[in-house]
Design brief:
6 helices; mainly alpha
C-alpha cells in the first residue's frame, strides 16, 4: 500500500499466524521502538528547550518517523486519510518553529521543541507497543500493519518453508 492509497485492510484470517522467527522480528522491532522512546523521554527536556541543537542526534529517529507516520496514523486508527497526517505534521512543526522565532527571536525554542517531543514520543510509543503486542499475540502481519505487510508476510512465508519444505 502506498501512503496515498485508500485504506484496504486484509480480511481477518487471510494471513497466516507468524511462527517463532516472525514473532522474534516483531519483538525486536518493538524493542527498538521502545528503546527510541526511552531515549526521547530521557532527553525530553533538552530536546524541548533546544530542538535545533538536538536535530542532529534525532535525525534517524525523525527520518523513520516521517517515512512511517502515515501508516501509523491511517492504519493504527483504521482511517484512510491518505497523506493528510504527514501534511498536517509538516505544517504544524514549521509553524511552531516560526511561532517560537516570533516569541523568542530563535527557532531553537520550546514552542518548536515541545510539539517535536510530543510527536516523536507518540509515534515510537504507538509503534513500539503495537509490535510488542503483535509478537506476544502472534498477530499476522503487524498489530497495526504500519510496516508494509509484504515484508512481514515474506518473513513468515520463509519461516513456513523452513519448517515444511
Amino acid at each position: 500500500m502506498k501512503q496515498s492509497d485508500s485504506l484496504e485492510l486484509v480480511a481477518a484470517g487471510t494471513l497466516a499466524r507468524p511462527g517463532l522467527i516472525g514473532r522474534a522480528v516483531r519483538l525486536v522491532l518493538g524493542a527498538l521502538c521502545l528503546y527510541a522512546l526511552t531515549d526521547i523521554v530521557q532527553h525530553a527536556a533538552a530536546i524541548a528547550t533546544r530542538p535545533l541543537t538536538s536535530l542532529v542526534n534525532l535525525a534517524i529517529l525523525i527520518g523513520v518517523a516521517i517515512c512511517l507516520f502515515n501508516y501509523v496514523v491511517n492504519i493504527g486508527f483504521g482511517r484512510s486519510w491518505g497523506w493528510r497526517p504527514l501534511l498536517v505534521l509538516l505544517a504544524v512543526l514549521p509553524l511552531a518553529a516560526g511561532a517560537g522565532f516570533l516569541v523568542s527571536g530563535s527557532l531553537d525554542s520550546t514552542v518548536f521543541g515541545v510539539p517535536l517531543v510530543l510527536w516523536l514520543g507518540y509515534f515510537y510509543a504507538h509503534l513500539g507497543i503495537s509490535f510488542v503486542v503483535a509478537a506476544l499475540l502472534a498477530t499476522p502481519g503487524c498489530e497495526m500493519r504500519s510496516i508494509p505487510v509484504a515484508l512481514i508476510v515474506k518473513i513468515d512465508d520463509w519461516e513456513r518453508r523452513l519448517r515444511h519444505p
